[in-house]
Amino acid sequence: MEKRISTPLTEEKVKDLKAGDSVLISGIIYTARDAAHKRLVDLMDKGEELPIDLRDAIIYYVGPSPAKPGMALGSAGPTTSYRMDPYAPKLLDRGLKGMIGKGLRGEDVVDSIIKNNAVYFAAIGGAAALIGKAVEEAELVAYEDLGAEAIRKLTVKDLPVVVVIDSKGNNLYEIGQKEYLNSLKK
């Protein structure tokens, strides 16, 4: 089922999302990869202020390519999510509600998604140019020295994603595998 949501990603919106749902996201999201995640968690550990407000926010795990003329951002394909797993639970505890990436998540992250009523989306790998076209504005907000891995504030319209892990812990990767294996038995 295709759903449209706009940010901020509140608890009520999260509760309506189920593993397998196709979702079009519009509004403000942030980009960050592992180096930026480490810096955010280091600031939290020191009790210092973060450069972005994580409450009801979505972080997209991406290191976009430079923008072409007339574009806000270049290609923006998802990066492998497990590299953010050491940091994700602390960010979820701080109010982060959504993460966009690709691939499996560790048990600690899934437990934290359930505990914090959050959601993990997958963006489609190989569709980086298409995803980049959903970005209307891009603003560098922190860690410019990280280049493509700096934190950016993106304004997106109809960014296509799929719910992989919903707030109840239902995991599309596991569900899909079971359904496929059951189909072989028939």
From TrEMBL:
Residues 6-174 form the Fe-S hydro-lyase tartrate dehydratase beta-type catalytic domain. Pfam families: Fumerase_C. It comes from the Bacteria. This is Fe-S-containing hydro-lyase.
